[in-house]
Description:
It is a single chain. This protein is α+β, with helices and mostly antiparallel strands and 95 residues long. It has one domain (22-92). Helices cover 19% and strands 19% of the residues. It has helices at residues 16-20, 36-41, 67-73, and strands at 26-29, 51-54, 62-65, 84-89. It is flat and about 35 Å long.
Amino acid sequence: MINPEVDVKLFDAITAAEAEDATFVEVVVTEFPDCDGHLQYHGGQRVPAAYDAETSLPGNPWGFLCEGCFVELGTGRGLGMGRGQRLVLASGVAS
């Protein structure tokens, strides 16, 4: 279970490898989907996702993950092509 009181690394800063494929670090969405991690593993709670990312679960399925599930269920490889993207709400993007 995710403990929101525990400090976790939330990948606010991109790594040098991510900077190389920075165009693949974020994706614009019109609304945040529900976190698949919470829907499947945390009692079906509806929590907004912050990432579309590969997981460390058997078979490495991809899913929409909130920040806590990204840390808990993600691969730990960060963001970028083939790893995952941060979801950015369209209303927060300059046109």
